[in-house]
Design goal:
With 255 residues, this protein is mainly beta. Helix content is 9%, strand content 38%. The protein is built from two helices and 16 strands. Strands 4, 5, 6, 12, 13, 14 and 16 form a seven-stranded antiparallel sheet that branches. Strand 9 and strand 10 form a beta hairpin. The N terminus is likely disordered.
């Protein structure tokens, strides 16, 4: 099964082995030898060592399956991610609480997928609206601008970053449905591995340094102020998304 980069997305899901073990694209199915697996597992465990307990995965957005498929052969796959997005010289945290989709064989034998949902926290941006720690507070929340295709070769997630706070209207954002921020974060080599077999949890460091970021939209009179604060528009190569993603799954007969 072909797999593509995640963000944040991005985005990364599984390659199924004959024994029904799953690994997201971020893990790279080619890295299945025992020696590589041991090295990767050590790296991923180190990356997740700050966590005192295994993360909880939210399966509430598991979508309804297509008619006629075998529930035991379909997986509901949930990805979570934490990290930072740097736009020019301004850095803000992000937390994806659940990126959910299902995939499995269709009745005709082809690969099928159904998108479930995207959930991300609203997080305060350091430096407030001014960027220097003064003035009104500023919050940022990633939102999905288009349904991603986790089986395609592109693998990008189309996101907008909603900005909220005093003086800002309801529709203030970085990126729009028509001009979203395209995120295609890929696994950092040597960082992917399983941190748990039961439940199955895989972790990896992910990075995207190619994203381009447009001007703010719908922010009214302070649009220019926010553009200066973030240095927008900001071309590819001037921005960076980095973090840790973790991934788990259940087959539909386990839900």
């Amino acid at each position: 099964m072909r797999k593509t980069p995640i963000l944040i997305a991005v985005t990364a899901v599984t390659a199924i082995t004959a024994a029904s073990a799953a690994m997201p694209v971020a893990a790279n199915a080619a890295a299945a030898t025992s020696a590589t697996s041991a090295t990767s597992t050590t790296s991923a465990t180190s990356a997740a060592s700050a966590a005192s307990a295994l993360p909880t995965f939210d399966y509430r957005d598991c979508p309804q399956l297509p008619t006629g498929v075998d529930p035991a052969a379909w997986r509901c796959e949930v990805l979570i991610a934490d990290g930072t997005v740097t736009i020019g010289t301004s850095t803000a945290p992000f937390h994806f609480t659940a990126v959910t989709h299902a995939e499995g064989p269709m009745p005709d034998g082809s690969e099928g997928q159904v998108f479930g949902g995207f959930r991300a926290d609203r997080i305060e941006v350091p430096g407030r609206q001014s960027g220097d720690g003064h003035g009104p507070k500023l919050w940022m929340q990633p939102r999905l601008a288009a349904i991603p295709d986790f089986l395609s070769q592109s693998g990008a997630m189309s996101l907008t970053f909603q900005l909220t706070g005093p003086r800002l209207g309801d529709g203030c954002s970085i990126g729009t449905i028509e001009q979203p921020v395209q995120v295609a974060a890929e696994r950092v080599p040597g960082t992917a591995g399983w941190i748990s077999q039961d439940p199955p949890i895989m972790a990896a460091q992910v990075l995207d340094q190619s994203l381009a970021v447009p001007e703010v939209d719908g922010c009214g009179r302070i649009s220019q102020e926010l553009d200066r604060r973030f240095g927008l528009p900001s071309p590819s190569g001037a921005n960076r998304l980095a973090g840790t993603m973790m991934y788990s799954f259940k087959t539909y007969d386990q839900l």
